C-alpha cells in the first residue's frame, strides 16, 4: 500500500495568514492526489483534485501543487471557516490511502 | 442538488452484525461508482470498500475482507454495507462517498454525513 505522510500534524495560525501543508507519498503517484477539508463533526469536503485542480465552488484562496511524491496545499489568506483538519488522499493505486491529517487551529 | 444520506449505525456487541445504508439523490446513481470510508474516533480516514456503477465488481480493505459486503440497489438509489463479525476496532463513523473521474484521476466529490458504529460489550 502507498503511505501518505502529511506535515505538520497540526499548526496554529491567525485569520489572514498564508498556510502551507505538505503531503508526501511513499512512491510516485504522478498527479493522483486530492485534498479535503473536514470541519469538526462533519464529513470531508473536496477542495483540490488531480494535485492542482480547484473543485467547483471552492474559493480561489485554496491552491495545490506538486507531482510525483511531493505535494502542497496552500491557503493564501486563512478565513474563520478554514480552521479545520485537512486530508490528502492518493488515487493512483488501490487501496486508496489518506494522510493522517493536518489540524489547523486558531492562534 | 446531490445528497447522500447515511443511516443504520448504532451500538452493537462484538461479533454482531449491522447494515448501513446510503440513500442517494440529485445525480444518476446507476452511473457512479461508490465507496465506503470510515474514521475511527480521533483518527484519520480509512478506505473500507468500493463498488462499480453496475455493482458487478466489489473491492475491500484487508481489514474487513470476508466480514463486510458492499452492495447497491440502483432501482432504489441506495448503497449498502453489510457488516458481520464486528470487532471493537471497527468502531468508527462510516461515510459513503461518490466517486468521480476528472483530469485523468478519480476522487470523492460528495460525501454522506456519516453514521456512527460503536462495537462494545
Which helices and strands, and how do they pair?
The complex is a heterodimer of chains A (107) and B (121).
Chain A: E1 4-7, E2 10-13, E3 19-25, E4 33-38, E5 45-49, E6 53-54, E7 62-67, E8 70-75, E9 85-90, E10 97-98, E11 102-106
Parallel strand pairs in A: 2-11
Antiparallel strand pairs in A: 1-3, 3-8, 4-5, 4-9, 5-6, 7-8, 9-10, 9-11
Chain B: E1 3-7, E2 10-12, E3 18-25, E4 34-39, E5 45-51, E6 58-60, E7 68-73, E8 78-83, E9 92-102, E10 105-111, E11 115-119
Parallel strand pairs in B: 2-11
Antiparallel strand pairs in B: 1-3, 3-8, 4-5, 4-9, 5-6, 7-8, 9-10, 9-11
What features would you describe in this structure?
The complex is a heterodimer of chains A (107) and B (121). Helices cover 0% and strands 50% of the residues of chain A. Chain A has 107 residues and is an all-beta fold. In chain A, strands 2, 4, 5, 6, 9, 10 and 11 form a 7-stranded mixed β-sheet that branches. In chain A, a hairpin with a 3-residue loop joins β5 (45-49) and β6. In chain B, strands 2, 4, 5, 6, 9, 10 and 11 form a 7-stranded mixed β-sheet that branches. A 4-stranded antiparallel β-sheet of chain B has the order 1-3-8-7, with no helix packed on it. Chain B has strands at residues 3-7, 10-12, 18-25, 34-39, 45-51, 58-60, 68-73, 78-83, 92-102, 105-111, 115-119. The termini of chain B are far apart. The model of chain B has no long low-confidence stretch (mean pLDDT 97). By secondary structure, chain B is an all-beta fold. The A-B interface holds A 31-32, 34, 36, 42-46, 49-50, 53, 55, 87, 89, 91, 94-101 and B 35, 44-47, 50, 59, 61, 95, 102-114.
